[in-house]
């Protein structure tokens, strides 16, 4: 049996988020739940899909005006995350269609999503193409912007000043609480930097305005910069972090 549950301020503590649910007391999980509670009043929707009472997937989306992705536009919903743990049953499409129908009910112009074939930290492009999304923009590091639009008008887009955002000589971690794995990502990078005798600086983005101005990639919620180069925009192991930092030290 398939069941869809929408998280709210009232049930988020009992239902919890899908990711990192095996470690409910970890800083990342607690930070994510706090972020959810602080974002529900901005139109955030976090929808879980259950199969026979067990979590099988989820989708998270929010009005573009409050999105954690670096996308400019108005009157669209932005899908932050889509994850399905049971393949072959149409669950991903069911969650996408849930979002599309919600957008129609809210009189939005459409839905957009960020994809990147080079990483698993963004949703897969293929499932959105299957659901009649089309690519409308690209950004460095393999990022693509896809849209499912209901009417003609001004489409969302990426900024163009990505190189200007890398103006940090020292190791700088730019992050938010949107993803529960970002605390682990931060700790791994700090450990790697410390092994190389370097102390990183952490910048916690507190608003969408800051995110639009400072985030080094469209992913928005995490980025590591060293010697004016992007080191990573997602979680790395300590070993991989050391390797990438050493490449900039040579």
TrEMBL record:
UniProt keywords, alphabetically: Transferase
Domain N-acetyltransferase positions: 1-165
Top-level taxon in the UniProt lineage: Bacteria
Residues that span the membrane, as ranges: none
Keyword Transferase set for record: yes
SUPFAM superfamilies: Acyl-CoA N-acyltransferases (Nat)
UniProt cross-references to Gene3D superfamilies, sorted A to Z: 3.40.630.30
Pfam families reported for this sequence: Acetyltransf_1 (PF00583)
CDD domains, per database record: NAT_SF (cd04301)
Protein's name in the database: GCN5 family acetyltransferase
Organism for this UniProt entry: Lysinibacillus odysseyi 34hs-1 = NBRC 100172
Species classification: Bacteria, Bacillati, Bacillota, Bacilli, Bacillales
């Amino acid at each position: 049996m398939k069941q869809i549950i929408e998280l709210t301020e009232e049930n988020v503590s009992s239902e919890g988020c899908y990711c990192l649910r095996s470690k409910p007391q970890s800083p990342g999980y607690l930070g994510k739940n706090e972020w959810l509670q602080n974002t529900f009043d901005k139109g955030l929707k976090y929808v879980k899909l259950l199969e026979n009472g067990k979590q099988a997937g989820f989708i998270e989306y929010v009005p573009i005006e409050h999105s954690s992705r670096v996308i400019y536009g108005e009157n669209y919903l932005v899908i932050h995350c889509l994850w399905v743990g049971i393949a072959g049953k149409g669950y991903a499409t069911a969650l996408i269609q849930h979002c599309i129908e919600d957008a129609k009910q809210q009189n939005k112009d459409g839905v957009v999503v960020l994809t990147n074939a080079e990483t698993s930290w963004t949703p897969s492009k293929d499932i959105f193409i299957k659901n009649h999304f089309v690519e409308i923009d690209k950004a460095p590091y393999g990022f693509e912007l896809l849209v499912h639009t209901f009417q003609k008008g001004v489409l969302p887009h990426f900024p163009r000043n990505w190189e200007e955002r890398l103006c940090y000589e020292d190791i700088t971690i730019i992050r938010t609480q949107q993803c529960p794995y970002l605390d682990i990502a931060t700790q791994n990078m700090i450990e790697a930097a410390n092994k190389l005798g370097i102390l990183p600086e952490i910048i916690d983005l507190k608003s969408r305005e800051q995110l639009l101005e400072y985030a080094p990639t469209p992913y928005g919620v995490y980025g590591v910069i060293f010697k004016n180069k992007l080191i990573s925009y997602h979680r790395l192991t300590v070993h991989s972090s050391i390797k990438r930092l050493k490449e900039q030290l040579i």
